[in-house]
Each structure stands twice: as C-alpha cells, then as structure tokens.
C-alpha cells in the first residue's frame, strides 16, 4: 500500500515541478504588470505545495526503506535451517594445547604482565573499554601488519576507510542503526554513524557505479577501528577483551560476478583458516544455521577458536556471501562485455548487480585472547608465535616486568 502512495506522490511532485518550470519560463517574456503579479502568486503557491509534497515524499521513502530493511536475503539451499545449535561442523583444525598446570585466562595474564588497564578506561570512557599497554600494543600492531601482508599476497588491495558514515549507507549494507537494540552508535544531531565494521565503507566505495566486467573481481583488505554498542551483552562469557565497544579489525571484501560468489566464499574462509593455522590455533569452522545469518547473508561460515583460559570456543571470525542484497541497495552494477564483433551493442547491454562478500581476517582483541591463553607458560610468561616475531621487533616472549 505504501508503495502505491509513494508512486502517487512521486507523480504529483513531478507534475508540480513541471508546472513550476512552466511558470518560470513565462516570467522570462514581456508581460503586463498585472499578469506578472499573477504569475508571481501562482509560482509562490506552487512552491509551497511542492515543499509540502516533497517533505511527504521523503517521509514515505524513509518509511518504505525501513520496512524493506526488515526483509532478509534469501538463504543458500545447503544452509541448515534452525537455531544456532543446528549449525554444521565444516572443519576442525588442530587440537587443544596440553597444559600440565592450572591455566589462566587473558584477564589474569594481562594483569600480571601489565598488558591491559580496564579500570582506568572505565573511568575515562565507561565499561567495555580498555587501554592496551607495553607488549600488548606491539602485539596489536604485529597482528594487523602480519595479517595485511599475508592477505595482500593473495591479491587484495589494502585500504584504510572512513570510520564515520551516513546512516543511509549503514542501512543499505543491511544494518539497522535506528532499531531498538541497534549495535550502531549514532552521532547526535547528524545523519552519521560510527562504523561497526569496515564492511560498511568498503561496500559503499563503489556506490551508484557501473563497473566493467574486466575489473571484477575487486578484492580489498581494510584496516579500521570498529565501534559497537553491544546492546544486551553481559555475563562472564563476555568479560575482558571478548566483547568490547571499540576495537581494531582487518576486514576482507570482494565484489564479483554472481556466478563466482560461491567460489570466493570458499577462498575467503580458506584464507582465514590458513591464517589461524599459521598462528597455531585450535579451531573449528561452522556452516551457520539460518537463524544466525543476519539480514544480508546468503551463507555464512564462522570460525570458533579454543580459548583455554575461558574454557570454551569463542568466535574469532566469519565469512559471508551477501549475493546482491547489498549491491541492489547501494546501486553497484557491472556491464557484461560482448565479443569484439558486438561492441556496437555494448552500450545497450543490460547491467547486472555484483555480488558482495566479506570476511574478518583479524579481530584484534579476540586474537589477543587466543594468543595469550594458548601460548601461556607455567612461569606466567607468554610465547610469541614465530610468524609474528618479525613484526614484534624480534621479541619472542612476554615476561614479568621488573618491579
């Protein structure tokens, strides 16, 4: 029904704009004063009516957009139907480290090794914020730089992104900044939001564009800070670095032809699995159930790593194929290329929407949890995995500070 009202309003607005332009054209000619005054009054009335209708059109468009956001993507035929418990194990890598002593969680290790300060951050910013200190700072930089270098070897173009975007862009990417339990921070007095993932500015990079077929796939890897309200998150399972309001992340993003998106999802999850294997993590990959996909995802794989201090698996990454769900809203298309003999028809070739995919290569806080808890030693020190040592200035372990 609203769509009909919207279409009617669009017609009315276009009609009034035409009448306004016609009056403006008449005003350009030589006119009697009385006739000119009459046109001035007519133009003024049209302007007022048009302003009212345009405001109504914006309201209807916004309401329709909000309703459209409630419609999720389709799901892959192989996606397990049901709650999160219905997710299917895709792959299991490694096994838990054996400890002949009582293990500590990352909070205890961080306190003893002087790596975090949650108390000061709570005073400065509130709960679920933190300061990283000493080797933890170097560990964050090492994780980011090592991940970027590894992903770039796979043909990804590195980017840093804006961390403030328009609310309309957030919505077009499939997130709901105005929902009651939104995870998005809105900036008061503006139409802007803080990003919860670099997926959002990466998705909007080619907004309202027609790409050439030869330019596809476009593969990006971006470093950014991310901000999430974590509304409703509480309990022991979310304490420490596991669920925080601000963190650093390295995100992969692909734009490709529709027929290629399934294979690029496999490529993305393969890259994630290679990265976590290189760091010596014990983890499992899950083909997530329909209830856990979120609105944009057609299919999603999650990676859960073993965190011995927490005594459970925790999600450290995911990879999603969003098909054309985001590109339709963002207006990202490509024009299929014809053979040389048919180049004259190229401009008339219908465009198609690209498919978009995203995958987290490194969510820094949870990677730090895994590293500290899995590489802790009996004397309380923590070994740095070999791949990260060149990015740590040669530091091989984190030890107690001299008092």
UniProtKB/TrEMBL annotation:
Give residues annotated as binding ATP.
228-230, 244-247, 315-318
Q: List the residue(s) that the UniProt entry marks as the site Important for serine binding.
A: 360
The EC number on file is 6.1.1.11
Q: Which GO terms describe its biological process?
A: seryl-tRNA aminoacylation
SUPFAM superfamilies linked: Class II aaRS and biotin synthetases (SSF55681), tRNA-binding arm (SSF46589)
The record's InterPro entries line, in alphabetical order, gives: aa-tRNA-synt_IIb, aa-tRNA-synth_II, aa-tRNA-synth_II/BPL/LPL, Ser-tRNA-ligase_type_1, Ser-tRNA-synth_1_N, SerRS_1_N_sf, SerRS_core, tRNA-bd_arm
Q: What is the name listed in the Swiss-Prot or TrEMBL entry for this protein?
A: serine--tRNA ligase
* The organism of origin for this protein: Spinacia oleracea
- Gene encoding it? LOC110804793
